[in-house]
TrEMBL record, chain A:
Matches recorded under InterPro entries: Cyt_c_assembly, Cyt_c_biogenesis_CcmC, Cyt_c_biogenesis_CcsA/CcmC
A Pfam family the protein falls into: Cytochrom_C_asm
Designated gene of the protein: ccsA
Keywords: Cell inner membrane, Cell membrane, Cytochrome c-type biogenesis, Membrane, Transmembrane, Transmembrane helix, Transport
Protein name listed in UniProt: Heme exporter protein C
Lineage: Bacteria, Pseudomonadati, Pseudomonadota, Alphaproteobacteria, Rhodobacterales
UniProtKB/TrEMBL annotation, chain B:
SUPFAM superfamilies in the cross-refs: P-loop containing nucleoside triphosphate hydrolases (SSF52540)
Protein name stated in the entry: Heme ABC exporter ATP-binding protein CcmA
InterPro entries: AAA+_ATPase, ABC_transporter-like_ATP-bd, ABC_transporter-like_CS, ABC_transptr_haem_export_CcmA, P-loop_NTPase
Keywords assigned: ATP-binding, Cytochrome c-type biogenesis, Membrane, Nucleotide-binding, Translocase, Transport
Domain of life, per lineage: Bacteria
Pfam family, one: ABC_tran
Record domain ABC transporter: where: 4-206
The keyword Membrane appears for this protein: yes
GO MF, any single term: ATP binding
Automatic annotation (TrEMBL), chain C:
Lineage, opening ranks: Bacteria, Pseudomonadati, Pseudomonadota, Alphaproteobacteria, Rhodobacterales
Alphabetized PANTHER family for the sequence: CYTOCHROME C BIOGENESIS B-RELATED, HEME EXPORTER PROTEIN B
Species whose genome carries this gene: Paracoccus aerius
Keywords recorded for this protein, A-Z: Cell inner membrane, Cell membrane, Cytochrome c-type biogenesis, Membrane, Transmembrane, Transmembrane helix, Transport
Described function: Required for the export of heme to the periplasm for the biogenesis of c-type cytochromes.
Name of the protein: Heme exporter protein B
Family: Belongs to the CcmB/CycW/HelB family.
Transmembrane segments: 12-37, 43-64, 96-117, 123-150, 157-178, 190-213
Membrane topology summary: Multi-pass membrane protein
Subcellular location: Cell inner membrane
Length: 241, 208, 218
């Protein structure tokens, strides 16, 4: 029994089909509960009720980065072990990641307007998210531009590798370029005190909810991709027979 | 010792296997003509032997850097003269006799002409003359006689014969009779059949 | 490898526009900027480093798709892949040829355009050094993008979409270096970063680009 068994499309379809309803239910429960709970929290003494956007903003921003990391890992697995499901999972994750990045940027703008008095500021954190969004766009565009699925999987994986290095590099370059006004990380292990428990627990819940949401979307999209491949293969076989 | 030994070769185009179970050997001085209907995978097989794409299954045994490959595109630069084009490939492949190659394909009088000003047949001759300067033992040729006239086909056949006589070998996909003393391999019986336990050739087949 | 370099340079000269076109584009860009932002020194001077670097970036981008596309069309790339030359070496040489035909003329012309944009004299040496250090990375990353999009019929737009985000760190450190030079500050930090990015790019990208080319050839 090894984890690589799930790289077999048939096994993957069977297992993912079995767990998918539970993941979807978990995502719905956690996200909805977390958001409602978050909405019912008392207003912050400094930021007022605007602070409540944190329950969308932080989980989306967190997932935006995590999804790129997941794509990087999936691309590496494809390049090294040639498991087709892995390449398809990376493909399926990209639009989700792009949307998460966009949610992070938009909620950030909505939050920034009352807080900093501007919709957009060329602050390092905001800028690096914009750059991340550009990388997502390029990755998605490359997948859709190449017809041959093998070449597309290989080339996007190479792009993801090189892109990761440069996305990281851009992040540090951007910090060098402009010290910003964005607050530091809201949650961190060392400074647990920075955010009061009133906000922290609903935030944890929405973060878990967004993680499960990503997982369910990822499973659904990967299953769709696998079915599309199967369809294409059957059609090609039909045509030749 | 054979120059090229192919065993149980299976190749794929666009993620779908085309021919499988192809085996043959080529010794020094031998030529092999590939035949088969359009789309059977002759070009794919030749590209695989030339090392431009990996085989799906099977083994290809030959020395490193043994192949000179010539296909539909001749790799010519229109802005360079005939002699410059040949000299470039001679340098890349480690030096051959440029003047001799031009003479062999009847290009000597055109040597200063830019390649863009050549006719289709002349370009083809230039592309084939490149084989002489590459000085590789194994020629892998994909439809080498396209747009050649009868005299040039004869000249090309002489060139291949000379190559074989010097201990070279040639693997040629062609439909015309070159008048060579060569074996013929028809790929039709090797057409790939779908089977559930075959290794997937590519992305789509992996999910069938 | 030298033969390949010589051939690419010869082709760039003979095909026309290889050397001049990038610089002409650079000139037009620098000439258009004052029309857009007004001719005042106070308006032009602070943005001059950015304009110069953006101009270099775009001029470099213009000719990227030609690095491999022509060789792919006429079959040269197939032949290069079967030649004794390692494909990584061919990539590096072709990126070098691209740099000599576009990057180098830009560097030589840049001080002139700096004067057009009222860049103070003390910023000219950092301008030259930053371009000299940065443009090889632009060519090499461009070769990577060109290798990825070589098989696509309409790869030009996609190429810029893929390559421009990769240019961000180089752009940031390049302009920062000129800006610091302009203000008379220490330029060592951005200079080292710029050199580091370029060195890393030159070391790693040929392998990535060659891998992409191999995928596109099969």
């Amino acid at each position: 029994m090894s984890i690589w068994e799930y790289a077999n499309p048939v096994k993957f379809m069977r297992t993912s089909g079995a767990i998918l309803p539970w993941v979807v239910a978990g995502a719905a429960v956690c996200t909805v509960t977390g958001l409602v709970w978050g909405f019912l929290t008392p207003d912050d003494f400094r930021q007022g009720s605007t602070v409540k956007i944190v329950f969308l903003h932080v989980p989306a921003a967190m997932m935006a980065i995590n999804i790129w990391v997941m794509m990087l890992v999936a691309s590496l697995i494809w390049l090294i072990r040639r498991h087709h499901v892995s390449a398809l999972a990376a493909k399926a994750a990209a639009p989700i990641g792009a949307v998460m990045t966009l949610i992070g940027l938009i909620t950030g703008a909505v939050w920034g307007q009352p807080m900093w008095g501007t919709w957009w500021e060329w602050d390092p954190r905001l800028t690096s998210f914009l750059i991340l969004f550009l990388f997502y766009i390029g990755y998605i565009a490359l997948w859709s531009a190449i017809e041959d699925p093998d070449s597309a999987a290989d080339l996007t994986a190479v792009l993801c590798l090189v892109g990761s290095v440069f996305a990281l590099l851009s992040r540090y370059a951007v910090f060098f370029w402009n010290q910003g006004l964005h607050q530091g990380a809201s949650l961190s292990v060392q400074s647990g005190e920075r955010m009061s428990a009133v906000y922290r627990y609903p935030l944890y819940l929405t973060m878990l909810g967004f993680g499960l949401l990503f997982l369910s979307l990822l499973l659904i999209r990967t299953r769709t991709e696998i079915r599309r491949r199967r369809l294409a293969a059957l059609q090609a076989r039909e045509m030749r027979a | 010792m054979s120059l090229l030994s192919v065993q149980g070769l299976c190749v794929a185009r666009g993620g779908l296997r085309t021919v499988e179970g192809v085996s043959f050997t080529l010794d020094a001085g031998q030529a092999l003509i590939l035949r088969g209907p359009n789309g059977i995978g002759k070009t794919t097989l030749l590209r695989t032997v030339a090392g431009l794409q990996p085989p799906v299954a099977g083994r290809i045994k030959m020395d490193d850097d043994a192949v000179a490959y010539a296909a539909h595109a001749d790799g010519l630069k229109g802005a360079l003269s005939v002699a410059e084009n040949l000299a470039f490939w001679a340098q890349v492949f480690g030096g051959g006799d440029v003047a001799g190659a031009m003479a062999a394909m009847g290009l000597a009088s055109l040597s200063d002409r830019p390649a863009a000003a050549l006719s289709a047949g002349q370009k083809r001759r230039l592309g084939l003359a490149r084989l002489l300067v590459a000085r590789r033992p194994l020629w892998v040729l994909d439809e080498p006689t396209v747009s050649l006239d009868a005299a040039s086909v004869g000249r090309f056949a002489d060139m291949v014969r000379g190559h074989l006589a010097q201990g070279g070998a040639a693997l040629i996909a062609t439909h015309i009779d070159l008048g060579l003393d060569a074996r013929v391999l028809d790929l039709t019986p090797f057409r790939a059949k779908p089977s559930p336990d075959a290794q997937p050739a590519g992305f789509n087949e992996a999910f069938a | 490898m030298i033969a390949l370099l010589r051939r690419d340079l010869t082709l760039a000269v003979r095909a026309g526009g290889g050397f001049g076109l990038g610089v002409a584009f650079f000139l037009i860009l620098c000439a258009l900027v004052p029309f857009g932002v007004g001719p005042d020194t106070t308006a032009l001077q602070p943005i001059a480093p950015g304009i110069l670097w953006l101009g270099a970036l775009l001029a470099c981008l213009l000719s990227l798709d030609r690095i491999f596309a022509l060789d792919h069309e006429d079959g040269s790339l197939d032949l290069l892949a079967t030649s004794p030359l390692p494909l990584e070496g061919a990539v590096a040489v072709k990126a070098l040829a691209h740099w000599i035909t576009t990057g180098l003329p830009l560097i030589l012309a840049a001080p002139l355009f700096g004067i057009l944009l009222h860049l103070p004299g003390q910023a000219i040496p950092p301008l030259l050094v930053s371009l000299l250090l940065g443009t090889p990375a632009l060519s090499m990353l461009g070769a990577f993008g060109a290798a990825i999009t070589v098989g696509l019929r309409r790869g030009g737009l996609l190429l810029s979409l893929l390559v421009l985000p990769l240019y961000i760190p180089t752009l940031i450190f390049g302009t920062e270096m000129i800006r610091r030079g302009q203000e008379g500050g220490a330029t060592a930090t951005p200079l080292l970063f710029l050199a580091g990015i370029t060195a890393g790019t030159l070391a790693v990208i040929p392998f990535a680009a060659a891998a992409a080319l191999r995928v596109n050839l099969r």
